[in-house]
Predict the structure.
Amino acid sequence: MWTSALGYAHPAWLGSFYPEDLPPEWMLTYYANEFAALLLPASEWRAPAIDSWLADTQPGFRFFLEWSPGDDLAAVVAVAQALGERCGGVVAPGPLALPSDLPLGCPLGVAGGTFPVARWPGALEPRPLRALIEQLGPTGLLVVEGEPPTLEVLRGARTVAELLGV
């Protein structure tokens, strides 16, 4: 199972997660040293810096792309294909009527898609979080939301998933 924040360039993380003097271009690398996946909002993948994303993260790191009906479908397909095996999937609100022959090159996370996705906006509540992680199973994506996402929750979710072996 993957645990991820929604985005990584949160100014409020400066001083609490990112060192105060960390250059903005190092934030992704710093994030990727602790977490193995990232859900990129459409605002970030629309102007992709794919070569630097790949260079700034380790080979096991996965990028998930958030897509909604107003986004250019051809653009998300192009970014997903460019990421290749590093694309963990495309996350869309479900259920959506999407073409079944999308040449994404990675899974689609929607109702009826190829992997389950859950968004967690709440606090670190171990019992409900555990139940959700068990429900998502080994192929799921848990996205910790918030402005910014709470690092304690993100770390706690990762730990619960590791302890459960998913």
Notes: Residues 151-164 form the longest helix (14 residues). The helical segments are 27-34, 42-45, 50-55, 73-83, 126-136, 151-164. The chain has six helices and seven strands. The chain has a mean pLDDT of 86.
